[in-house]
Design goal:
This protein is an alpha/beta fold and about 525 residues long. It is built from 21 helices and 15 strands. The chain is globular, with a radius of gyration of 26 Å. The model has no long low-confidence stretch (mean pLDDT about 85).
Length: about 525
């Protein structure tokens, strides 16, 4: 009897240690998917075999030894010892943040693992059945996490409503505050950083930091950071489904609404481009009559929004000569600077220099300058600010190394337009061997495979060597694109993960080479 109790406790201890690891991984995935069950389910089922851990099922072979409790426990516990010791943690570029919400989910999941087996034991007086149930719960931990997230909804909603109510009261008390909302399929975070640096030369500005672009992220910034001295508040607004931007707009009531561009990003969740367009339009639908809607004049879905607002519409563009603000004479100099002119509505020309690379950054600067000019920022201040702007973190950052290798870090995320722009930059930049490290693009719905294939077909236009990260549909599509244009197979390496990719890079890179890290979002899920 004592031996059985001791062995049971030892088995439960090692099982708990292994289960905690698995639980934290699932909670990390939930957090990366914004605690949205539908997005988490898409991640789980996108590559079910890879994302679903079948290892705990091995412990169920101990069922055949139920008649001998000690043998049953010995086999059952040994399986989890092996699983625990053989576990290799993944390197996470965006690690799990232990928030209060994560702690609450941990309590719910732990309660499920404790209460259900205990209930079975008290009903049947068969502790073996409780151990079998523990294995089944661990095997199904993705769905246990989903269940915990559902059970937490009433509590989370109540907490969220309290914070939002406080934020509304705070922002309504700032009577002289002007709010600028920024959304778009891509470019919104970079544009936000650029706009803040320009406007800060003349105004007391506050912006939502990093990628704080959800209702609760914006709420937190208001409650913790908004002060009476601020007269401009720059708010990034992200969306994963219809109504997300309206929620934030109802909270902050922007007077200026910028849509950087409308494209296929997050098509997996939105399903159609029209759904994306209508959701992005939520930022301008309720602008006041004296407000300004700033739209991309080269983007057809944006042009279709001309009747979506009663506010004045201002267009910016590179190709469209009818736009209010047009960038022209774009050049990339050997010293790494990009120069270009902006034609203003009064036909004045603003000549600018920037250290940002790529046509997509010209659009970002152009839209920010459009708003700054509408707010009457001094032109000399605009020029100085644009010249001093550094790239936002992981967005075309140029980083020379001691080994004489130039790293271009565009690892935040990517989309078809930005991927093309990155290849164009690599074609124009000076360097010997030009190398790309990429896991491909995700969240593009039905066009995901085709867009990654097109990306692969475009790679030879600016790159000499390709390191693909991960065995996935994305990398398979890129490889197919490379094969279709007869890119040499000896110049392609398929890495198991980012560590393997970096090992291969160290093996082939030489002084004078240029390395592009393009998109890390899928790598969070490896």
């Amino acid at each position: 009897m004592l031996a059985t109790i001791f062995l049971s406790l030892a088995c439960l201890a090692i099982f708990s240690a292994y289960t905690i690891r698995q639980m934290m991984h699932q909670l990390h995935m939930l957090q990366l998917n914004s605690y949205r069950n539908e997005r988490y389910s898409l991640w789980l089922h996108r590559d079910f075999v890879k994302n679903f851990n079948f290892s705990p099922a091995i412990a169920l072979i101990s069922i055949v030894f139920i008649s001998n409790e000690l043998i049953f426990l010995g086999i059952w516990g040994s399986v989890y010892v092996v699983l625990f010791l053989s576990h290799k943690p993944l390197v996470q570029k965006k690690p799990l943040v232990i928030t209060a919400r994560i702690k609450r989910l941990m309590v719910i999941i732990t309660s499920i693992f404790c209460l259900l087996p205990l209930g079975v034991y008290f009903l049947t007086n068969q502790f073996v059945l409780s151990f079998i149930l523990l294995s089944l719960l661990l095997l199904l931990i993705p769905y246990t996490s989903l269940l915990a997230n559902i059970l937490a909804i009433p509590v989370e909603q109540s907490i969220a409503n309290g914070f939002v109510k406080q934020a509304k009261k705070t922002i309504r008390s700032h009577h002289n505050l002007k709010v600028i909302g920024i959304t778009g399929s891509y470019g919104k975070t970079s544009t936000k950083f650029i706009l803040q640096q320009i406007l800060a030369t003349q105004y007391h500005t506050l912006m939502t930091p990093e990628s704080y672009n959800t209702l609760m992220g914006v709420t937190r910034v208001i409650n913790e950071n908004l002060k009476p001295l601020h007269n401009l508040f720059i708010v990034e607004m992200g969306a994963k489904q219809k109504g997300d931007i309206k929620e934030i707009s109802d909270l902050v009531r922007p007077e200026i609404g910028l849509i950087t561009t409308i494209g296929e990003q997050h098509l997996e969740t939105f399903k159609t481009l029209d759904n994306i367009k209508n959701t992005k339009a939520e930022i301008i639908n309720d602008l006041p009559n004296h407000g300004i809607a700033v739209l991309n004049g080269d983007n057809q879905p944006s042009l279709a929004l001309n009747n979506a607002t009663s506010a004045r519409i201002v267009y910016f563009a590179i190709d469209n000569p009818q736009a209010d603000y047009q960038a022209k004479n774009i050049k990339i100099l050997n010293n790494g600077l990009t120069t270009f002119d902006i034609r203003l509505p009064d036909e004045q020309v603003l000549s600018l220099e920037s250290r940002l690379l790529g046509q997509h950054n010209i659009y970002n600067i152009l839209s920010a300058v459009s708003i700054a000019n509408e707010l009457r920022v001094n032109h000399n201040k605009i020029k100085s600010a644009v010249r001093a702007i550094k790239p936002a973190p992981h967005r075309m950052n140029v980083k020379p190394t001691k080994a004489g290798i130039t790293i271009i870090d565009n690892a935040f995320s990517t989309n078809p337009s930005a991927a093309r722009s990155s290849v164009e930059v690599m074609a124009k930049i000076d360097g010997k061997q030009k190398i790309i490290i990429t896991p491909g693009m995700i969240e593009l719905g039905e066009i995901e495979y085709e867009e990654n294939k097109k990306f692969g077909q475009n790679i030879p236009n600016g790159l000499d060597y390709v390191i693909l990260v991960g065995h996935s549909r994305q990398t398979t599509a890129i490889q197919e694109g490379l094969d279709s244009v007869k890119f040499p197979s000896e110049q392609v390496y398929l890495a198991a993960d980012l560590n393997d990719a970096n090992r291969q890079l160290r093996a082939i890179a030489q002084t004078g080479d240029v390395v592009l890290y393009e998109n890390d979002l899928p790598d969070n899920y490896l």
